[in-house]
Amino acid sequence: MSEIDITGAVCPVPLSHNEQIVMGHGSGGRMAHDLIRKVFLPAFDNPALAAGDDGAVLDLPAGRTVVSVDSHVVFPLFFPGGDIGRLAVCGTVNDVAVMGATPLYLTAGFILEEGLPLETLRRVVESMKQAADEAGVKIVSGDTKVVERGKADGLYVSTTGVGILPEGREISGRRAQAGDAVILSGPIGDHGIAVLAARGELGFETTVQSDCAPLNGLAAAVLAAGDDIHVLRDPTRGGVATTLNEIARQSGVCITLNESALPVRPEVASACEMLGFDPLYIANEGRMLVILPRAGADEVLAAMRASKYGEGAVVIGEVSAAPAGRVLMKTPYGSTRVVDMLAGEMLPRIC
Amino acid sequence: MKYLTEYRDAELVAGVMREIKRVTTRPWTLMEICGGQTHSIVRYGLDQLLPPEIELVHGPGCPVCVTPLEQIDRALAIAARPDVIFTSYGDMLRVPGSNRDLFSVRASGGDVRVVYSPLDALKLAQANPEKQVVFFAIGFETTAPANVMAVMQAKNLGLTNFSVLVSHVRVPPAMRAILGSPSNRVQGFLLAGHVCAVMGYHEYPPLLETYRVPMAITGFEPLDLAQGILETVRMLEAGQVEIKNAYARAVTFDGNQPAQKMIQQVFMECDRAWRGIGVIPASGWCLRPEFDDFNAEKRFDVGEILTQESPLCIAGQIMQGLKKPHDCAAFGKQCTPETPLGATMVSSEGACAAYYKYGR
After folding, report:
1. Is there a contact between B91 and A347 if contact means CB atoms under 8 Å apart?
2. CATH assignment of A180-338?
3. What residues pair up with A145 in beta bridges, in sequence order?
4. CATH code for A23-165?
């Protein structure tokens, strides 16, 4: 037996795992700290997060505190007009904003799948930073867990938003009243169709971009222009039809839509025709419904049209007393039909 | 949208509706054959615009609704197999079998996927050679060309892991069954435009001769439907018994002959059970024996199937035009789109689902 060469390193140096997520990134140990230091801290730079404690200590201005949580799962992670990061920030910012509150802070919880390219995570985090900057909110607390490959679909993000609601302001789905007007901030169905098309299963391509956007600026413009806003809502999953049904039931009123007034882009309308979908049930991530007394509608409409993300605002319907809890649609033919909630999963028709 | 917007023009529709009112002097009962037409009529509220003398009854032309329970139970059994990727048009997933649906099979671990075309299922078979890919080939004459194309391509490609579970039905035998029934109320038909686009309308003159009912080939947009109704009412009022083509932009007398030829190569006529109605002779299409290798019924032995319909459901009478959805005691109560007791409450083309969705 020849002499053993012991001049080289006998102890293998561990790999640094800079390319993809491994289980160790969720261990709470050094790798987890590295991930925070290299990916999250540089993007979400603020004193509360940088303090490195288990929770963020926040100074809140006067008013009531609004808290809202939303979990985000989307496939694919990146789609025309947005990505899961922008969605995770905008979705929660919008939920706080449509309460009439000013969103200030977010927390973010990440579930990462083992094997996720680190570059993907970086892009998502960078997109969250840009959306948070645009919305003027800070991401003050975060958490990361890693699950085994195959136990998640790339990554999931759950965000919680904190905002301040001024005393005396009450925006609620319970406040729609007979005589109110219903305003919609822009064309419907863009997000749902953009994501569906990005999956590449439709057999056709479309130029539709997701409308994913932070709406707190638009909400502030609405609240500044109208002193008696009854309801603000963002019609996300289930679409405008489902959201208006929720409001009609909460308020015990009837909402009647004017089919000719509903804004739908021609590309979205065509995609829906081909797939057997109704744009009224397709998700939006950057649209807002505003319900307020008819007398104040023109002023609010003008303010919305002058605001970013509200350029396409139109009055789409009105509120009446009966039949309570129903949403009706006036067709261009002079007939009327009921617009119900989405029953379950939206299914394409056979032919 | 060209070819759509102009057929949704409110003023043109109003003009035809005025003409229908003008020519109508007596009560008439018309049946629209196709579920897609039922959906449009209720969605656009066209029935509200008709004179009270005109009653529309809804025909059996919803492929999801008439697929027999036994075949759905067979689909559920095949879809639950671990070696199978089961593919289907979307609206079949919620159709209740005897005790569950394809959604519950998927939730229990079955690989059930929605495809937009059987050719997508074929691609899945090529991409997953270790799996058996099954496509649920249901529908009327309209979906038959794509379904036979998938089988032909599978044969040409020599695929051994692709098969179809066929439950095809045809319109003319169903019309014959409705017209031949002693309780028939239908006096005129709006023929299904898309079925005629494939098959033409050379199959209908014998029905016309035997049963003496006027028919108008009708499309699916508001103006198409209004035109079809106007043509039929005009014939009824004048005592004419003819077939008028009110959907000439899509339909010719002979139809799509290459498609018909392909269908003949792959399918043959067979008796078929219609859910809620029963067996109608020669009303279905089945795979020819030379395509047995692609027949999921032959490939998978799922044992004996014992079916159990809800005793409350009257879908069969609704699809024969004998009853309307509200005549059913379970409508909107035990039976809703979330918890359907029968298939007419599932597909957006089913009369019950259309009535429920649009609040009738």
Report:
1. yes
2. 3.90.650.10
3. A111
4. 3.30.1330.10
